[in-house]
Amino acid sequence: PSLRIRGIGSMNASNDPLYVIDGVPVVSGNVGQMSSDLYVTNNIMNSLNPEDIESISVLKDAAASALYGSRAANGVILITTKKGKSGKPKVNVKMTYGFSPSWATKNYEPASVQDQVNMMYQVYYDANYDADTKNDAEASSTALKWLNESFNMHGYQLTAAGTGRYQNINIGEYDNSGRGGKYYDWEKAYFRSAAYQNYDFSVSGGNGTTNYYSSLSYSDQQGRSRANDFKRASGRVNLMQKAGKFFDFTTNVAFSRTRQEGFNDTRNTATNYFFDVRNLLWGMYWPTDYKTGQPYTDRYESYAYNNLYYDKLWSNYTINSQFSAMETVALHPIPRLDIKSILSYETTGVKGHLYYSPEHYDGASTNGSVTETRSTYDDITSSTTANYNLFSGDHELNIMAGFEAEKVTTDYTRAAGTNLANSDLQSVSIAGAYDAAGYKWGHSLLSVLSKADYNFNQTYYLSASYRRDGSSRLSKDNRWGNFWSVSAAWDMEKEKFMKPLTWLSAFKLRVSYGVNGTLPTDDYGYMSLMTYDSQYMGKPGSQLSTLASSNLSWETSQT
Predict the structure, then answer these.
(1) Which of 466, 447, 439 is nearest to 523 (CA)?
(2) Beta partners for 435?
(3) Alpha carbons 448 and 404: distance in angstroms, whole number
(4) Largest interatomic CA distance in the chain
């Protein structure tokens, strides 16, 4: 999933919104380290089971999102997971099956084989007529020759009834079944009616002092492209316990394992099947060589590859294993005062695998290659807030203040091998040459936050918030950023002069202004960095890799 709230919010950093699950910001976006267009994108939000979600709120207003400071420039998505309710245990079993047939994505229809051939004939005719011949007959003859050389049509020869630029080329009997005839249906060969199946099981209940919710889920989703698949197994336990009058404890534990294989949808002519069948793989191209009956391994004249053959010579997948645990302690020392402290730990392990056989066009130059990557993301977040509510007649005031700290670290290891001894074993250990790398990075964020809300008679509203963030991604001179907001609202429907308008159910005016900030994506962008991947006469060596940018600062947006 990829969400955009009110368009693009940053010039250089991420445009993903901030995801907050049960009050804690979580890692989102692609967490894989293989960055080529060929490689699978592993979005961390794939791990969340939709059946565990109780509610979703989207914060796009300046005053609402400013409370989240530096991470809210692209909006905030608040996700609340399900909790147990008092009563007898409730068991839910849900099984879902769906499919995406060809007509579900039937758009951008290509021209017919007849129109494609007529168009290509005109291109060849123009190239010959304008270049040398200035003669209809010679230009037509050469254009037909080039056409017949361009396609592997099982020996069939294209002909034209006459000469000149506008000819209806005789393409013979048109059979688009993909099972025979002179033309091949690449759409049927590359795509399928993709099936989706999901199984959910949950148990919930409570007795007034203890509430619980637990779930297990398994999903298996095929891509419309035959090369793409996605599987997910996940589970969750949410437990709430009251301890006397003053304490509440909440424990949320979740795990998931996802496996995604195939490739990303890009305009890469070798990997985007949709792009190929709409532009490059005409019906006059066949996946087999009519002379030998063997798979066609050359590149077609349109620069497309025969991936019915090459997809057997490579593999690509990522496995994402995630575990998160959150403990919340709520204290109610006096009436209307609530103090809540949250400690959250989230760890994500991502395994990446990419293999090319020596027979694959991307593995030929290295006699085959295999790459294995391991990335581990650890995120520790601590948050403590105090809320005080004051009521006096028609007046209501809510004041909140808090402190947050977050530390994110990543460990990465890569092992790669080329010159593979065996094209059936996809292991680095069989390689004739090795390459490896490993390093770690991370960042920290400290924040203080506050908010005040006032309303009179549930009709007039005022609100203000202030947050100060400090990030290790910036130098000491620019480390801290201030983010604030103000807002006012008038619920006009509550006014006496609106009562005669019985047809009007709601009428509210609201205005807000806020400042958000976005951090640079590089953890050490403000520093001068050295790299140690250079060697000299067998000895380790270093060189300058990044120049310091001490003026690097917050990217702010006023909304």
Answers:
(1) 439
(2) 416
(3) 6
(4) 99
C-alpha distances out from residue 64 to 225, 431, 508, Å? 41, 55, 17
- CA quadruple 282, 310, 189, 40: dihedral sign: negative
Q: Please, is 183 exposed, middle or buried when counting C-beta atoms within 10 Å of its C-beta (0-12, 13-18, 19+)?
A: buried
Q: What are φ and ψ of residue 260, in 5° steps?
A: -125, 130
Q: How far apart are CA 279 and CA 270, in angstroms?
A: 12
pLDDT tens, position by position, for the chain (559 residues)? 678 887 776 666 677 888 899 988 887 777 777 765 566 776 777 888 999 999 999 987 777 777 777 677 788 899 999 999 988 999 999 999 999 888 877 777 888 888 888 999 999 998 887 766 568 888 899 999 998 888 887 777 888 888 888 888 888 765 544 334 578 889 889 999 999 999 999 999 999 899 999 999 999 999 998 989 999 999 999 999 999 889 999 999 999 999 999 887 666 777 788 888 888 888 889 998 878 889 999 999 888 999 999 999 999 999 999 999 999 999 999 999 999 999 999 999 999 999 999 999 989 999 999 999 999 999 999 999 999 999 988 999 999 999 999 999 999 999 999 999 887 788 899 899 998 989 899 999 999 999 999 999 989 999 999 999 999 999 999 999 999 999 999 999 888 888 888 898 889 999 999 888 788 888 898 999 988 877 788 788 888 988 888 888 888 888 8
296 three-class SS:
coil
Residue among 54, 44, 52 nearest 18 (CA): 44
